[in-house]
Amino acid sequence: MDERASSRRQDTRDYHSFSSASSSVSNLSKDRSRSNSKKRNFRNKKKPTKRVKHTIDFPPLDQSLLSFDQFQELYVSNDIPTEKLRLLYQTYERKWENKQKELFFDQHKDEPWIQDKYNPVNRREFQEERNQLAQNRFNEFLKQYNMGGFNNINLTMTEMQLMDFFELNDHFYNDDPDVPFWEFQLKESIDITKAPFFGSDPNQNSVFIKNVPLPLSRADVVKALSSLPGYVSLTLSEPNKLQNYTRIGWVSFDGEEYCNRCVNDESITIKGHSLQFQKQQEKRKFVRVFKSVEYNKLLKDLQQQRELIKVLDKEKGISGNPLIEGPLKDRDDPTFNRQLDIQTLYLRRIHNYCYWSGAEFSDYRLLVSKVGYHFFRLDQKKKCNLEWQDIIQALCNRRREESSDELPLTELIDNEIIQMGLKLRNNRQKDAYPCIFCEKQFQGGTFLIKHISLKHEKQYWEHQQSLSQQVIDQQMANNHKIERSSKATIQRQIFVKGLIDEAQLQENKIQLPINFAPRVQQRQYKDLDSIAQDKTQPAIMFQMRETKVNYNDI
């Protein structure tokens, strides 16, 4: 028995030792396999390529612009690839252009036309003038509205009316569903100012000034023109480099007879400079017709228009507008289209805002020249790419959230005084506004300025005088910088296809207003047909324009 038991114990030990040995061999083979696998992966793994960052010192920006060949010769020893060098040259060009604009601004900042463009006092005066004109137009519009003058307005057309009203052999025609509108020339027999359109022809009541020299400020010209009977407003263009930096202007009058009288007088003299008048002659009147409209979205358009009117009325100091009172019309209401058309007309005539283009202009003449005498809707159920309505509504929302108000100089100085207090007092309480003349602190900037004006009247007046020119210079530089940065965006043309929402607009940094083709794209395309034939780009094209008051047109 003892021998058998001893034999069994020996067999058990042998089995365990064999199992342990085989397990060790198996683990060893696995380890070797992992090691070999890692080695293979290490051999096969590609080393990441190092990105070489090329940094160079650009040539002096206050000297003449170098050509690309000259630029390339400067850095021939840097061993920079040609593609990278071209990108660096583009950066150099942008920096050079910005520097030249800064130098030009510093050289001419005391001249009247620069003061008109960038001085906050001049800009505020121009805005107040525009506000007064808008209020006058509102009073005329309200009088006609209360008398039922717009009851038969109709901006919806049938195909038969297209043949009656427009020159169909002279238009931009396109069946591409991505192009939302046609552009037609109005027949000479059709009066756009009469019912049912109630448009306006700015050329009937305006004259053209051939040359306005730079030494004359806008205030000088307005003062001289104000003595003419029937004078309403003045619009000045940017100085033309090719014509010795002269400007052209348009003078609006209260009636055609005043225009004719002004033209007969031929010219006026201001500070030794003679201004000559000519009657503006433009027989071609173009309008735009949307091929199709998604009627389910028109209710939202009506609501968006009303909200935009509230914002623009407030900016212009207009109150008591019956268009924004009462409940919204239902889509099935027989007066729905009339209300939509009246609001569209109101935005154009009072605020120079074309809702169906998302475009705002400094005066009505510019609006007509860019987006036409009217926008019409075609009354038919034809399939069309209708995301343009979503874009327009999103742009309307953006405009409502932005303000075009220019602060008065006194408020700008007050803001500077507030900032001085915030910078000087490091031991101030949280969210407190300290006084720079005593130890008191306030819970708001308004209370602080009220305290300073009452308790430190002499110091407050002295600071206003000393800070006045400093604030003006600072604001002029800021306005010039903002214009330069916005123009870089404005000059880029953005092609949009597909549904656009608020988030996408914000992400793409699209700014108001955006102007529909084809007027603004004739540099690239002759008509809408050529756009549709370009298969590399979507058919709808939008061009950036400035959001606020277009001071380039002052």
Largest sheet: 5 strands, mixed
What is the count of β-strands?
17
- Quickly count the helices: 17
| Percentage of residues assigned to helices | 40-55%
What is the overall pLDDT average?
71
What gap, in angstroms, lies between the N and C termini? 122 Å
What is the number of domains? 3
Rounded radius of gyration (Å): 35 Å
Overall shape: it is globular
Describe the structure.
Helix 9 (295-316) packs parallel to helix 12 (387-401) and helix 13 (409-424) packs across helix 15 (457-490). Mean pLDDT is 71; it is low at 485-554. The chain folds into three domains: 68-108, no CATH class; 113-180 and 291-405 and 466-554, no CATH class; 202-279, RRM (RNA recognition motif) domain (Alpha-Beta Plaits, 2-Layer Sandwich), CATH 3.30.70.330. Helices cover 49% and strands 13% of the residues. Strands 1-12-9-3-2 form a five-stranded mixed sheet, covered by helices on one side. A five-stranded antiparallel sheet has the order 5-6-4-8-7. The chain has a three-stranded antiparallel sheet with strand order 15-17-16, with no helix packed on it. With 554 residues, it is an alpha+beta fold. This is C2H2-type domain-containing protein. Residues 433-461 form the C2H2-type domain. Residues 1-16 have a biased composition (Basic and acidic residues).
List the helices and strands and how they pair.
Blueprint: H1 2-44, H2 68-74, H3 82-108, H4 112-118, H5 120-146, E1 156-157, H6 159-165, E2 166-172, E3 181-186, E4 206-212, H7 218-225, E5 231-236, E6 247-253, H8 256-265, E7 267-270, E8 273-279, E9 286-290, H9 295-316, H10 336-351, E10 353-354, E11 359-360, H11 364-371, E12 375-378, H12 387-401, H13 409-424, E13 433-434, E14 441-442, H14 445-455, H15 457-490, E15 493-495, H16 502-508, E16 514-516, H17 528-533, E17 541-544
Parallel strand pairs: 1-12, 9-12
Antiparallel strand pairs: 2-3, 3-9, 4-6, 4-8, 5-6, 7-8, 10-11, 13-14, 15-17, 16-17
Helix pairs in contact: 5-10, 9-10, 9-12, 13-15, 14-15
